[in-house]
């Protein structure tokens, strides 16, 4: 099967890949054939294309060969099944593909037809960075995310007929605000009676991690932040908030997101993100950066060609809601979840705090400590990317929380032993308060759906070069470095070329430059406005209201519904006949 | 249960008359009955029992088809006596071939496993059995054969409670000797 | 018995006790202990000592049960491995977990570790059956593999703590065996064998990520077992295709198949390579499998005109039906000095047997 995009998930090292064939028993939608007693029985034949036909058994040519329907599996089946760890690629590709987007757009009736749906495209900043890095590497002048956004917008509107194109950083801004609000809830122990889990709080924006935890580490679920990911916040904003402003119901909008990650397709398919009343999803279709690239190529759009609009700020006609664009969230290129918490902590502290970073083994595992003047630790967090580091994190969190990690039965012996050994010295180190967890090494800029470097390009992967006669001593390591070098370029592009803001700014740089600060204030204000519009309609927010404002019980309940979600463990055992052994 | 029916409408075949086999089965029920099958079978006969095609067939013919539980593997022509062959050099090594009802049958690994387990439990230990699908009868023939003859995979499968539960159901009919099901 | 072979295989002792198939045996490299594991979920540890002067050809070894560890694994214990220090034992189970076992040293009184073997740590992460585990020669790394197609590398920390260093997803099928190169020069080499018929070799790159640097193809069915030669120049693999292949390290990161050994007529489940006794050869390779046959090969390097050694192999001993009618799942030479001619086997009959090869009196 040909994949859209340049690669399959399994090309990549250290990602959480499906380790088993799909085991989900699928429903057969064909009506059961009428059994004609005594009649010739049927056989099934496979033709050269691999299709199945049901034919009569012996010598009855009068019966038409009936083509049998190929069984299909929905993404929801994937979520409900413990068979493979994350996504069955083929399912993702067939059900949420760029051809699916094209099919929709072609069949979308033109206004003023009642059945017309408003097509909206939202693109993640990591996807913009990937495209920017690819363009920059083949052109003399570096291209930044803002130019890419302008060009993609022009393509989506002029060529494909999208009516609105956004980037998802404003949605991320809201996700970060809700995230911080949840963290302070957990930290203060507030809402414990409502079943709010203790610290550490673990990031929830990576669907690969969430899915993995649901399938194999149910004991981690209470720690995972209930705040929606930026993609799903965007879904809520587009379908509920913008939709209301446009006079469109959720089902009258077709919302496509462009994401650096295949598992975002899975996330969008979660039942929690479906609107039952309108039978529609908050995000109707997710395509990867690679798929968007393919779409542009298929339509003959040259992303490397500058367009006039890209030099001026986007015209208000394109952005009537004045949604801040390309909001920078300093810290990490995977959403800065950890840094936004630390920044909030530092900003709200009465006394000066020091923030120190320690890299453990490699750049994908950093420990962050915030101390007060007396040297007491007030916050301990980590940034932990990649499947391998994730394993160590799960072990550590489980150990610190005194939990039985995983599903094994032999654990009781180990737990017993540990309990005995855990003396007063185990109190020495403060456990983590927060961990920014991502499944991909390098984080979202290196997501499975991103563009891959072309061979021969600077920083391109060298792994496909043939081995030389003198062995692999030189070649092999550079194959890995090549990949890293490329990720580094995307990272640079993410922060805007030339590579200025370091991904991990020292604490004193946490103050932002003037323009960004203004944009950010605008975003904070807009966030509160929409919060009231959505949760407490008719009521104006108090002038000094921030995102964590109390709006009253009903409004807070509404906010919960709009900006938080939930996780559930997937049952381990499957139907006996479906067991893959 | 499993949602997909791989062959909703299988061909049903009349069972063979097996009087001689049945007679043997009664006479030698020692190793035909799982409950009585302890490790003693070698004790009474210092010269190992000669076991032929029909006797092996007798052991597996009445295993239930996982998809059509009321039918046996024999009735669906999944197994037959001629598909059981002995190594001409080493008589204790035999190959049991089976024929999936449809070439994409997702139940084939399970059927193969049920045959293997039945023989594992019933035959004296000296027998080494290869279970294979009939050449050309299944689209994943090689993969199937490989899995069915990997003792480690089989051993692990038999520690999976969900799988064993269904397996026991299909094997529960295997000791039955009334082969007069009407078609 | 059959042909005139220079050595014959003699049974030293037969150790009964497992209630189910015995899968694997492992000799403690530092202390006189033999460990075996089984589908009965236990590990049995045997002490041994030689009763007479080891210099005499007939020095009999006496084995006695030290202890049975119930393990607590929910399923079959498929493999056991000792750390080089001999203080720690690792168990790989079909329940997908790895157990780390050591003796409580609290009540140690100068006489070495005493007391009960306890589970010090449980390594989880594999999704399905764990099939094999191995400590690197320095004991700082532990590798494991599983039907989930992955190979994991763990770093051994003090206090039975482990850190995952790599999850290698290179094989397309079930991984049956992992083995470490005997010498850790600059970097350790790890090998894995799979149901996908291939062998993969890995090293860690300077930035501490593990990666596969070569894939050895040639076997036409499942590769069940791997062992490096004592000198580290060769790797032997036993397969369901009824052959043993020997791969030579021809360059730093380049391995080539130089010999194909035939002699078994059922799956080869286990191979082991020891220094052997005597001089002028590369050691003794023992093999066994589903045919119940034990074969011992002498492997030698013959200089050729091209300057490159040519490998030669010769069966020096054979023993059929080593566990009666049962399959033999594991064969392992004793690594201890002076006992190069002793090996142990584990069979489907639940028995563990210790053998010795001795020169035939012709």
TrEMBL record, chain A:
Residues 120-448 form the Iron hydrogenase large subunit C-terminal domain. Keywords: 4Fe-4S, Iron, Iron-sulfur, Metal-binding. GO terms for molecular function: 4 iron, 4 sulfur cluster binding. InterPro entries: Cytosolic_Fe-S_CAF (IPR050340), Fe_hydrogenase (IPR009016), Fe_hydrogenase_lsu_C (IPR004108). Coiled coil: none annotated. The keyword Iron-sulfur applies. The keyword Nucleotide-binding does not apply. Gene3D superfamilies: Fe-only Hydrogenase (Larger Subunit), Chain L, domain 3. Belongs to the NARF family. This is Iron hydrogenase large subunit C-terminal domain-containing protein.
From TrEMBL, chain B:
The keyword tRNA processing does not apply. One of its GO terms (cellular component) is iron-sulfur cluster assembly complex. InterPro entries: FSCA_dom_sf, MIP18. The keyword Repeat does not apply. PANTHER family: CYTOSOLIC IRON-SULFUR ASSEMBLY COMPONENT 2B, CYTOSOLIC IRON-SULFUR ASSEMBLY COMPONENT 2B-RELATED. It comes from the Eukaryota. Belongs to the MIP18 family. One of its GO terms (biological process) is protein maturation. It comes from Ceriporiopsis subvermispora (strain B) (White-rot fungus). This is Uncharacterized protein. Keywords: Chromosome partition.
Automatic annotation (TrEMBL), chain C:
One of its GO terms (cellular component) is cytosolic [4Fe-4S] assembly targeting complex. WD repeats lie at residues 15-56, 70-101, 123-156, 168-202, 216-248, 261-300, 328-362. Residues 62-156 form the WD repeat-containing protein 75 second beta-propeller domain. It comes from Ceriporiopsis subvermispora (strain B) (White-rot fungus). GO terms for biological process: iron-sulfur cluster assembly. Belongs to the WD repeat CIA1 family. This is Probable cytosolic iron-sulfur protein assembly protein 1. It is found in: Nucleus, Nucleolus. The keyword Metal-binding does not apply. Keywords: Nucleus, Repeat, Ribosome biogenesis, rRNA processing, WD repeat. InterPro entries: Beta-prop_WDR75_2nd (IPR057644), CIAO1/Cia1 (IPR028608), WD40/YVTN_repeat-like_dom_sf (IPR015943), WD40_PAC1 (IPR020472), WD40_repeat_CS (IPR019775), WD40_repeat_dom_sf (IPR036322), WD40_rpt (IPR001680). Pfam families: Beta-prop_WDR75_2nd, WD40. Essential component of the cytosolic iron-sulfur (Fe/S) protein assembly machinery. Required for the maturation of extramitochondrial Fe/S proteins. PROSITE patterns: WD_REPEATS_1, WD_REPEATS_2, WD_REPEATS_REGION. SUPFAM superfamilies: WD40 repeat-like.
């Amino acid at each position: 099967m040909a994949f859209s995009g340049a690669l399959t998930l399994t090309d990549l090292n250290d990602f959480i890949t499906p380790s088993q064939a799909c085991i989900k028993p699928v429903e057969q939608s064909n009506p059961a054939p009428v059994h004609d007693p005594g009649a010739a029985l049927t056989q099934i034949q496979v033709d050269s294309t691999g299709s199945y036909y049901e034919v009569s058994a012996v010598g009855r040519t009068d019966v038409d060969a009936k083509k049998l329907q190929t069984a299909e599996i929905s993404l929801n089946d994937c979520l409900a099944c413990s068979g493979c760890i994350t996504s069955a690629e083929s399912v993702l590709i067939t059900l949420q593909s760029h051809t699916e987007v094209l099919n929709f757009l072609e069949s979308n009736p033109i206004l003023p037809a009642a059945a017309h749906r408003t097509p909206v495209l939202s693109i993640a900043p990591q996807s913009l960075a990937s495209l920017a890095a690819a363009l920059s590497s083949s052109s003399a002048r570096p291209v930044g995310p803002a130019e890419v956004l302008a060009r993609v917008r022009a393509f989506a509107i002029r060529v494909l007929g999208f009516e609105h194109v956004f980037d998802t950083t404003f949605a991320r801004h809201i996700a970060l605000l809700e995230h911080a609000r949840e963290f302070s809830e957990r930290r203060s122990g507030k809402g414990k009676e409502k079943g709010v889990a203790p610290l550490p709080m673990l990031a929830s924006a990576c669907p690969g991690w969430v899915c993995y935890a649901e399938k194999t580490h149910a004991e981690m679920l209470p720690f995972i932040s209930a705040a929606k990911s930026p993609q799903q916040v965007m879904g809520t904003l587009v379908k509920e908030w913008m939709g209301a402003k446009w006079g469109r119901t959720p089902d009258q909008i077709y919302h496509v997101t462009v994401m650096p990650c295949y598992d975002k397709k899975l996330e969008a398919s979660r039942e929690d993100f479906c609107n039952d009343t309108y039978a529609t999803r908050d995000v109707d279709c997710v395509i990867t950066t690679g798929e968007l690239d393919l779409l542009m190529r298929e339509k003959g759009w040259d992303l490397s060609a500058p367009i006039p609009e890209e030099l001026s700020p986007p015209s208000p006609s394109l952005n009537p809601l004045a949604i801040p664009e390309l909001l920078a969230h300093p810290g990490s290129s995977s959403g800065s979840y950890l840094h936004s918490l630390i920044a909030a902590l530092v900003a709200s502290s009465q006394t000066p705090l020091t923030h120190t970073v320690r890299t453990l083994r490699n750049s994908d595992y950093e420990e962050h400590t915030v101390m007060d003047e007396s040297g007491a630790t007030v916050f301990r967090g980590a940034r932990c990317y990649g499947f391998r580091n994730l394993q160590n994190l799960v072990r550590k969190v489980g150990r610190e929380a005194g939990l039985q990690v995983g599903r094994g039965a032999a654990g009781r012996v180990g737990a017993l032993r540990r309990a005995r050994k855990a003396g007063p010295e185990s109190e020495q180190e403060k456990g983590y308060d927060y961990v920014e967890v991502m499944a991909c090494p390098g984080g979202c800029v290196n997501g499975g759906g991103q563009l891959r470097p072309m061979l021969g390009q600077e920083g391109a992967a060298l792994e496909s070069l043939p081995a030389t006669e003198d062995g692999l001593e030189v070649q092999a390591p550079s194959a890995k470095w090549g990949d890293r070098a490329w990720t580094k370029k995307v990272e640079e592009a993410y922060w805007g070329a030339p590579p200025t803001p370091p991904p991990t700014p020292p604490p004193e740089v946490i103050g932002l430059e003037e323009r960004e600060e203004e944009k950010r204030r605008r975003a904070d204000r807009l966030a509160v406005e929409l919060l009231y519009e959505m949760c407490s309609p008719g009521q104006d927010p108090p002038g000094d209201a921030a995102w964590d404002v109390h709006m009253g019980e009903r409004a807070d309940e509404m906010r919960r519904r709009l900006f938080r979600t939930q996780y559930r463990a997937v049952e381990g055992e499957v139907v006996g006949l479906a067991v893959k052994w | 249960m499993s949602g997909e029916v791989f062959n909703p409408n299988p061909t049903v075949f009349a069972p063979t008359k097996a009087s001689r086999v049945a007679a043997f089965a009664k006479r030698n029920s020692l190793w035909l009955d799982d409950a009585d099958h302890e490790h003693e079978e070698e004790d009474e006969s210092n010269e190992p029992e000669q076991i032929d095609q029909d006797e092996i067939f007798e052991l597996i013919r009445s295993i239930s088809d996982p998809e059509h539980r009321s039918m046996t593997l024999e009735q669906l022509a999944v197994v037959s006596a001629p598909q059981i062959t002995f190594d001409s050099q080493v008589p204790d090594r035999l190959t049991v071939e089976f024929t999936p009802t449809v070439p994409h049958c997702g139940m084939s690994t399970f059927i193969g496993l049920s045959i293997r387990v039945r023989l594992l439990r019933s035959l004296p230990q000296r027998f080494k059995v290869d279970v294979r699908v009939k050449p050309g009868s299944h689209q994943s023939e090689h993969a199937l054969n490989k899995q069915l003859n990997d003792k480690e995979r089989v051993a692990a499968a038999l520690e999976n409670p969900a799988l064993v539960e269904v397996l026991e159901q299909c094997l529960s009919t295997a000791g039955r000797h009334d082969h007069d099901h009407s078609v | 018995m059959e042909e005139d072979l220079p050595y014959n295989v003699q049974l030293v002792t037969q150790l009964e006790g497992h209630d189910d198939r015995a899968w694997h045996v492992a000799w403690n490299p530092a202390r006189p202990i033999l460990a075996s594991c089984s589908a009965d979920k236990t590990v049995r540890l045997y002490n041994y000592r030689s009763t007479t002067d080891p210099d005499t050809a007939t020095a009999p070894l006496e084995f006695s049960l030290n202890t049975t560890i119930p393990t607590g694994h929910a399923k079959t214990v498929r493999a056991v491995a000792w750390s080089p220090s001999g203080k720690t034992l690792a168990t790989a189970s079909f329940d997908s977990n790895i157990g780390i076992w050591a003796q409580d040293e609290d009540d140690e009184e100068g006489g070495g570790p005493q007391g009960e073997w306890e589970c010090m740590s449980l390594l989880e992460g594999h999704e399905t059956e764990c099939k094999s585990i191995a400590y690197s020669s320095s004991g700082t790394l532990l590798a494991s593999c599983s039907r989930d197609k992955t190979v994991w590398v763990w770093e051994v920390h003090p206090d039975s703590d482990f850190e995952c260093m790599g999850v290698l997803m290179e094989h397309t099928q079930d991984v049956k065996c992992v083995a470490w190169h005997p010498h850790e020069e600059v970097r350790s080499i790890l090998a894995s064998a799979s149901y996908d018929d291939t062998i993969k070799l890995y090293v860690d790159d300077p930035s501490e990520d593990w990666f596969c640097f070569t894939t050895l193809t040639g076997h036409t069915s499942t590769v069940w077992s791997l062992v490096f030669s004592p000198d580290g120049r060769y790797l032997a693999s036993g397969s369901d295709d009824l052959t043993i292949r020997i791969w030579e390290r021809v360059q730093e990161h380049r391995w080539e198949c130089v010999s194909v050994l035939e002699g078994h007529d059922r799956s080869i489940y286990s191979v082991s390579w020891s220094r052997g006794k005597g001089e002028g050869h590369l050691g003794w390779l023992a093999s066994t499998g589903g045919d119940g046959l034990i074969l011992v090969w002498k492997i030698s390097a013959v200089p050729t005109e091209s300057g490159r050694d040519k490998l030669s192999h010769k069966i020096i001993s054979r023993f059929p039906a080593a566990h009666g009618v049962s399959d033999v799942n594991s064969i392992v030479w004793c690594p201890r000095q002076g006992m190069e001619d002793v090996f142990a086997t584990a069979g489907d009959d639940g028995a563990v047997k210790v053998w010795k090869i001795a020169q035939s009196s012709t």
